[in-house]
Amino acid sequence: MAGLFAHTLRPALLAASRVERLRRAADRSALTRRVVRRFVPGDSLDEVVEVVVALRDSGRYISSDYLGENVTDADDAADTVRAYLGLLDALGRRDDCAFDGVRPLEVSVKLSALGQALDRDGQKVALENARTICERAQAIGAWVTVDAEDHTTTDSTLSISGDLRVDFPWLGTVLQAYLRRTHGDCAELASQGARVRLCKGAYDEPASVAYRDTADVTDSYLRCLRVLFAGGGYPMVASHDPAIIAAVPALASEFGCDAYEYQMLYGIRDAEQRRLAATGNAVRVYVPFGTQWYGYFMRRLAERPANLAFFVRALSART
Ligand code: FDA
Predict the structure, then answer these.
(1) In whole numbers, what is the pLDDT of the chain averaged over residues?
(2) Which single residue of 76, 143, 181, 215 could bond 103 by disulfide (Cβ 3.0 to 4.6 Å)?
(3) For this structure, is 10 an active site residue?
(4) Phi, psi at 287, each rounded to 5°
(5) Ligand 1 pocket, 268 CB below 6 A?
(6) Residue of 114, 132, 135, 136 whose CA lies nearest to 123
């Protein structure tokens, strides 16, 4: 079953995540949307702010993502920027922003939603759009982290993140442990003292650039994490994997690193998030919102056979 899922269903789900016709069908189904709520708590700003308040009250930090990716039109990219500014203004009305040390509130951005793939000046447009978001985040005492997308975008994403870090040294960058290059990227960013969110990686990548075997990805993750803890940056351990979470205290103590955080996705291992926060750890929850949830939702289905089974059961319960 695990082999069938990893080699057949997972690639099929990830391919489906890019099919516009399927996205429209999913969007029309009220039932799908009910299942989606487990991972995406709302379409609107008011809904996400309500969730942010509850998570903050439970002692967890936040990184909120306005869903959307691969925009092909500069106006759509500008709409995304406006949505982030609205989100930051709403978060800024709370009294738990911070200008020094760890910032409890953060937004995560996908550069492809900010115009990175536009034919004309995509890289420049995405950089300027991200800069506008960083300026607002800086003004209210929030952080920004740049998400990692498929491997064809990695060079461009790291280049834009590097440019932004000149003015916003607190900017976070996501690295994906399944990419063979990531060990080197971790060393480079750690030597610059950067905030790095390390995740396993959620796209269907070829073996030429990525480890595809589950155990190899976990090994790579642990090797990369070691580099981050040994370096001078701020490691962000973005994983739900018990083996990875269990490895963190020993790494922190070996390298005398007390500035780091655990990160998990909204709706996944909530009890573990609470346990870590209750035992004095910094835990940040990634909270996506918005109507463009299809790609994000399909990647969550592709991560775990049980999620797909849950989805299929919900669909068949109706008939
Ligand atoms: P793994 O997939 O091995 O899961 C370990 C265990 O966690 C499972 O056995 C299960 O118990 C639980 N679990 C994991 N996924 C689950 C799910 N979907 N539903 C229910 N339980 C689940 N990726 C990317 O390519 N670019 C990015 O920018 C980001 N950003 C990001 C931010 C944050 C805060 C997190 C936590 C993750 C990401 N990711 C990401 C996603 C990441 O690459 C990866 O796909 C998922 O985190 C799943 O990998 P795990 O490390 O959790 O391990």
Answers:
(1) 91
(2) 143
(3) no
(4) -115, 100
(5) yes
(6) 114
pLDDT-derived band at 1 (thresholds 50, 70, 90) equals low
Q: How far is the CA of 195 from the centre of ligand 1 (A)?
A: 19
The three-class DSSP label of residue 184 is helix
Asked if residue 286 has its Cβ within 6 Å of ligand 1, the reply is yes
Tokens standing for residue 105: 């509130």
Q: Token match 């990875």: residue? A: 244
Confidence (pTM): 0.93
Indicate whether residue 265 lines ligand 1 (CB < 6 A): yes
* Catalytic residue of the set 10, 60, 197, 284: 197
Who wins on pLDDT, 33 or 191? Answer: 191
- Ligand 1 atom 38: residue of nearest CA: 199
59 Rama sector, left if φ>0, alpha if ψ -120 to 50, beta otherwise = left
Q: Kindly name the residue from 23, 103, 136, 147 that is annotated as catalytic.
A: 147
Residue-wise pLDDT tens digits, 98-130: 877 999 999 999 999 999 999 999 999 999 999
pLDDT tens digits, one per residue of 204-245: 999 999 999 999 999 999 999 999 999 989 999 999 999 999
Of the candidates 200, 255, 207, which has an alpha carbon nearest to the alpha carbon of residue 231? 255
Q: Please report the pLDDT score of residue 206 as a whole number.
A: 96
CB 109 within 8 A of CB 137: no
